[in-house]
Amino acid sequence: MTTNICSFKDRCVSILCCKFCKQVLSSRGMKAVLLADTEIDLFSTDIPPTNAVDFTGRCYFTKICKCKLKDIACLKCGNIVGYHVIVPCSSCLLSCNNGHFWMFHSRAVYDTNRLDSTGVNVLLWGNLPEIEESTDEDVLNISAEECIR
């Protein structure tokens, strides 16, 4: 029997909110670290956060690796909140990664633990519905109170 050292199923699912305007950006967030520099904390998600962010500016490449990135900004306030990995480099693809290509800066967003259907326990990635079962409505159905601190 083999075990996957890169398993993320026991990680908590987070609701990600813009620090500037408290807009819900994603209901499928995960705490992460930058693969090219593990000292940098980030949040990530596995599906495009439509109706919450949009692309801004031009594509660029990182200095540490060869990933092609494009910044994303909150649709409500316009502040840059992260970036999308448009084309991941082979080095990052071969690293232990969670398969998420939508990244959020910890200086621009904050998280709240997402609860499971009972409303009592923190939802874990291993119990999260498949991507096909989730829709953009997941983000829209989360009340603004989830992002108010």
Automatic annotation (TrEMBL):
Residue ranges of the TM segments: none
> Highest taxon of the source?
Eukaryota
InterPro entries under this entry? YPEH2ZP
Q: Name one GO cellular component term.
A: cytosol
Under Pfam families, the record lists: YPEH2ZP
Which family does this protein fall into? Belongs to the FAM72 family.
Listed name of the protein: Family with sequence similarity 72 member A
